[in-house]
Amino acid sequence: MKKPEVQSDWIDRYHENALNQSELKRFNGLYDVSGILRAEVEVDRCLNELLTDQDTLDFYQKINSVSCKQFSTNWQRFLLLMAASFLILFTVGTLLYLLVKFNPAADILKNEAPLVQKTESSGAIIPESYPEMAHAGKPSSISRDEFLLPYPPTSCFEVLPELELLVGAHTRTSTFKLIAPIPYQQMAVGSVVVFIWEYIGPSLPVTISILNNRGQSIFKTPSIEGNSYLLDTGDLQKGLFYWKITMDDELIILGKIKLN
Amino acid sequence: MVVNYSDEAIILGLQQKKARYIMYLYREYFPVVRSIVERNSGTKQDVEDVFQDTLFVLYQRSQKNDLDLTCSLKTYFYAISKNIWLQRLERKYRLLYQAGFEVQEQRAAYGADDSETIEYQLERKRLYQKHFFNLPEDCQKLLRLCFSKTPVQQIIGQMRYKDANYVKTRKYLCKNMLRKKIMNDPNCQPFIHYEKT
């Protein structure tokens, strides 16, 4: 007689007591020799227990759904946090951009023409005793980069007490004598300030700096070897400015100009 | 707004399998389990597993109405989860705890010797159910109907199968699929015994 072939449903049928005599005999024979079949029968028995306990399955289903929800909630929270961070960064970035773009101070830097334009007709104030200065050359330009900090119009005529004390005072007069300008001078915007000096003794290069009324340097000449210098105020705004002449980084004289 | 439930409300909610109480337990008690498991060389997955097993123990207890709390539910939950994790460590890594007193003490606190709280069975049940819920929807439904002893005619109607034979065949196929998934899962290997007992 042909032995019945083992089918995949035999394990289920074994547990359901649905195998006939010959099938059961064959199954038991296999069960004795096959570890895999024994393991599978054991797994099936445990599965039957689990599947019969519908209540437990329901509870596990609930746990799984809550666990998934928790997971997705955490993800949602994370994504929300990321989105909020991006939004904040974007807002702050935009605000900063707008602030820089529409800041009046930055506007001066961006939109204004160069502070001093080179001009042939300088309108320089030349002292009468030095007529040759009319041919001293073109006035120097103050580059835009050197205009460090523009300041609001309301305070541009205020004096700086710390510098006021030094206006007109020579700190080293033995070899240097300033002829022009006078320590305090008023002039119109666009005038050229003429610096003329003499040396009593050996001549040394000097440097002229222009400071705003906050004491910030807005222009500095390179070392000047000669005896004169023309400074065009054409693109300076109205206000009070200080100038200083230094020799070997040592202050010689400080003065001020009021541009109306 | 953060809602706080009393221990009694939680137990009642758990008895009725209400999702919001399970979520509440996740929110409030999950950190407790995490502190136990991660402190004792556990991974994030271990935390999740121990938490679910503890939840299941609590559920079973609440179903049997034998949750006679002498401490707060949180302490109780802590005790269960700690014991489950220590037992699991012991089983998995065959570690010998010198501080065995603590384990015994915790066991005494909630009667861990009861069959439903045996860690081994908890893990097996959890793994098997995971595979069950990974089956195709129709298989899950069919197996649940078959094991809840629903009449075949009703199953045919609900599942829109042509006859009883197909129900039977389909059931065997689904069951076979589930068995194979379990047999092939490395996590399930500790629960599969190839030797004759």
What is shown here, in short?
Chain A is an alpha+beta fold and 260 residues long.
Could you name the key traits of this structure?
heterodimer, A: 260 residues, alpha+beta, Immunoglobulin-like, 3 domains, 5-stranded mixed sheet, B: 197 residues, mainly alpha
Structural summary, described in words:
The complex is a heterodimer of chains A (260) and B (197). Chain A is of the alpha+beta class and 260 residues long. Chain A folds into three domains: 10-52, no CATH class; 56-102; 131-259, Macroglobulin (MG2) domain (Immunoglobulin-like, Sandwich). Chain A has helices at residues 10-15, 21-33, 35-52, 54-102, 104-111, 161-164; strands at residues 176-180, 184-187, 192-199, 207-212, 217-220, 228-232, 239-247, 250-259. In chain A, strands 2-8-7-4-5 form a five-stranded mixed beta sheet, with no helix packed on it. In chain A, a hairpin with a 2-residue loop joins β7 (239-247) and β8 (250-259). Mean pLDDT of chain A is 76; it is low at 107-136 and 143-152. Chain B has 197 residues and is an all-alpha fold. Chain B folds into two domains: 7-119; 134-191. Helices cover 70% and strands 0% of the residues of chain B. Chain B has helices at residues 7-15, 19-39, 44-64, 73-93, 100-110, 119-133, 137-147, 152-159, 164-184. Chain B is globular. The termini of chain B are far apart. In chain B, 31% of the residues are buried. The model of chain B is unreliable at 95-112 (pLDDT under 50). Chain A binds chain B through residues 8-9, 11-12, 32, 35-36, 38-40, 42-44, 46-48, 50-52, 54-67, 69-70, and chain B through 17, 19, 22-23, 26, 48, 52, 55-56, 59, 63, 124-126, 128-130, 132-133, 143-144, 146-148, 169, 171-172, 175-176, 178-179, 182-183, 188, 191-196.
